[in-house]
Amino acid sequence: MRDQRRINQALLPVACLALLAGCKLGPDYERPELAEPPSLLGAPATGNLDQLTGWWQKLDDPMLAELVTHGLTNNLTVQTGLQRIRQVRAQLAQSNAGLWPTLTGTSSFNYGRKFGQQAGPGYNATGAGISGDWGGMFSGGFDATWELDLFGGVRREIEAREAEVIGSYFSQRDIEVSLSAEIATAYLNVRMLQSVLDVTRSNLTAQTQSADITRKRHEARAVSGLDLANAEAQVFTTTAQLPVLEASLADMILQLEYLLGERPNTWCGQLLTTASFPQLPPELPALLPNELLRRRADVRRAETALMAATARIGAAKAEYYPRFSLVGAIGLSAPTTLNNWAGLTETMRLGPRVTWNLFNAGRIRAQVEERRALMEQAVLAYQQTVLAAYREAESAWQGYNQEALRSEALGRSVEANQRAVRIAHELYQGGYSDYMGVLIAERSLLAAQDLQVRHRALLAQKLITLYKALGGHPEEDAD
Predict the structure, then answer these.
(1) What are 102-139's pLDDT values in tens digits?
(2) Would you put residue 361 in left (φ > 0), alpha (ψ -120 to 50) or beta?
(3) Fold observed for domain 28-102+151-320+363-469
């Protein structure tokens, strides 16, 4: 009963301090105010996140959907990001452990004899010598320490760690957003190069046939050798383009396989057996309000960095104040020669402990100032990231719209050049013009068709850039 009263007396001041442990030093996080434009992308803002979820499905290409899904699972950068999430979650668990007591078990064994100052056999003239027989001493017990987070330093650090965990998820999302766009862009480049090769081979076939006709007419002395030379030169010029295009196609497939986290030539066969081009959706994603642009992964990551920097100001300020701990220990010790419990020694202590860093040459003040500077840097970084999001969204929207304006003109250009080639051949075969007119018309047609194919791929890439700028992601955002 007396021991219990002593324990209660020891715990009383600690219990009083625990009532004050709800306070936390330092500023609480507040999202910075930003001067947002009244509307983005030159039109009133409407829309929702459903338009951004799994955006590549809207291109209606099963192969593309399969590649993106595969890449989001197997890409090594994605897997590295998952390990980073695991790392920061472990760091959060370490910080949470600071709110709980620590219990340490100890045990030791010593063997020896005592030195003493005595007179008698075995001692020198000064009385120094060794007394007693050899023997051992065993001791063991438990030490416990519980530091009260009276001024919130540990809790502020936990806040910072929690913000970093959330930030790691948004970092992972940013990686996935970028990766899905890169995979789709590489896939479009593969399809574009396949289409350019098809156009080039088709023109080469027509040019070869035209050269054969010219050769026969030259043998019949109906045309000059200059016409034959021009026709054969056009064939050789077009033929020389094929190895360059094939090398570019092979290199782009290798790049795509790298993004997928696969070894070379893993997907080459599947990609080359088909050459379908993704179909663009009939409607663009609706214009999204500013608040949704602020939900981009990079913006959210910048915001969590600001949260962490704000919380760590309070953690630094807590160093100004004393630390209050409840410490206790219980132990047993006894010589190994003990034949009964009479020589067993028990120890127990319990009580509060206070430590206070009274002089540190301004170290804590400088640390608080450092944390404030880091917070201001995080504010500026957040503001800059938001402004960059606005700029990218506006630029992507304008880029897509301007590229779309070229579609009709390029289509008509191809049609006009096809008519020009037909007319040039008719005039040449009728003897009304030389082969130079055919040569010019065929070169113009090849250039127009090449430009149309590349425009089609570029338009799709502009759409991908727009989805990426608006924060498109495979999964719906959850707040």
Answers:
(1) 888 888 877 766 665 554 555 555 545 555 566 677 78
(2) left
(3) Outer membrane efflux proteins (OEP) (1.20.1600)
